[in-house]
Design goal:
Layout lengths: L1 H10 L19 H9 L2 H32 L5 H13 L6 H10 L6 H10 L5 H9 L3 H9 L4 H9 L4 H17 L2 H6 L8 H9 L7 H36 L1
Helix pairs in contact: 1-13, 2-13, 3-6, 3-7, 3-10, 10-13, 12-13
């Protein structure tokens, strides 16, 4: 926790130096936070990042839960080969495909748009199907069979039985997909060029890449503001995670 606490304290420390003799500053200032919004389009970067992360979270959660349900409850030809293929592809680093993705986005005229980030982030969500499939596998088949006897379709089973019993899994998927879109730098830096469309990670990097040593406290203030939405989301969703785990224990 010490490095994180150092960054937080540095954001309130007067001056711009990276070095300090004490963790807690003698005096506190909000000047660095004001500078972020006065001299840089930080509010616009923040809104851009929230938009990309929110839609990525929605689409990724939908895609990965549907994929996990299909592999958990359906039996079809080539199922195991597709699962193995997704696992193998998921082992390769994402940057290996960046040039190909860049060319595709160029042909689709999606470069320098937030839609490009949302599409790419969400499209890769199905690679994380294994965690969802394993969770769905733990739900008793007797519940599914009883619903089928009552005439429920697969969509009804998925929405009214599987999802309500999967709160911990849904919370985990939502948190990871939101945070991954919120903090990604490499791909966002490759796609976005317009200053008004930058995300926080790219904006902060371009803001301090030349004079990091002279504006460390300003960078620290930006880092603190980046952490706020993720922390609030975790605190809010933690209640649902605990409720889902408690309900599962009581049911067991």
């Amino acid at each position: 926790m010490y490095p994180a606490l150092w960054v937080v304290m540095s954001s309130f420390r007067p001056g711009t130096a990276l070095h300090s003799e004490q963790l807690i500053p003698h005096s506190f200032t909000l000047e660095h936070y004001r500078t972020l919004f006065d001299k840089y389009p930080f509010a616009q970067w923040f809104a851009n990042t929230l938009k990309v992360s929110f839609f990525t979270m929605i689409f990724s959660t939908i895609i990965v839960t549907l994929t996990g349900y299909v592999f958990s409850r359906f039996r079809f030809k080539g199922r195991k080969k597709i699962m193995l293929g997704l696992l193998v592809i998921g082992m390769f680093p994402g940057f290996m495909s960046m040039i190909a993705v860049y060319i595709l986005l160029l042909q689709l005229k999606l470069l320098d748009t937030h839609m490009a980030l949302i599409v790419v982030y969400s499209a890769g969500a199905s690679m994380g199907y294994l965690y969802v499939k394993s969770f769905f596998d733990t739900i008793p088949s007797s519940l599914i069979d009883a619903a089928k006897i009552d005439g429920a379709s697969h969509w009804t089973i998925f929405v009214k039985i599987m999802l309500p019993l999967s709160k911990p899994m849904l919370v985990f998927i939502a948190l990871t997909s939101f945070s991954s879109g919120f903090v990604d730098f490499i791909f966002a830096n490759m796609v976005l060029t317009d200053d008004d469309k930058l995300t926080l990670a790219v904006g902060l990097f371009k803001m301090v890449k030349i004079k990091f040593a002279t504006e460390f406290t300003l960078f620290a203030a930006g880092c603190v503001l980046v952490a706020v939405p993720i922390t609030l989301l975790f605190v809010f969703l933690q209640r649902f995670l605990i409720e889902g785990l408690t309900a599962g224990a009581e049911k067991g």
